[in-house]
Design brief:
This protein has 94 residues and is mainly alpha-helical. It has helices at residues 21-31, 36-43, 47-61, 66-75; strands at residues 2-3, 9-10.
Length: 94
């Protein structure tokens, strides 16, 4: 693991973890605090489809719930830390 100028460890972006474009949009919405219902209306998908993609991403990141999913996405540098609402780092999208 690399270290920054203060000697603190800095995590590297996840290699091999690729999200589909729809998963990226869903993760951004979850990180912004949107419910499955709101995301389903905005993305023209069923709420079950939203929940399915959240579950798949949670399994990939070994996160037991939405809060942990967002937290892991920030720690693994999947979500950018310099913008609001949260945005995906481009390299993680297929």
């Amino acid at each position: 693991m690399d270290k920054d100028q203060n000697g603190c460890e800095v995590s590297q972006p996840v290699s091999g973890l690729a999200l589909s474009s729809i998963q990226a949009r869903i993760l951004e919405g979850v990180a912004a605090g949107f419910s499955s219902g709101r995301l389903s209306r905005e993305l023209y998908l069923s709420s079950k489809t939203i929940d399915y993609h959240v579950r798949v991403m949670s399994d990939k990141l070994q996160a037991p719930n939405r809060v942990a999913l967002v937290s892991r996405a920030f720690v693994l540098q999947i979500l950018r830390t310099d913008s609001w609402p949260p945005r995906i780092v481009c390299e993680t999208v297929d």
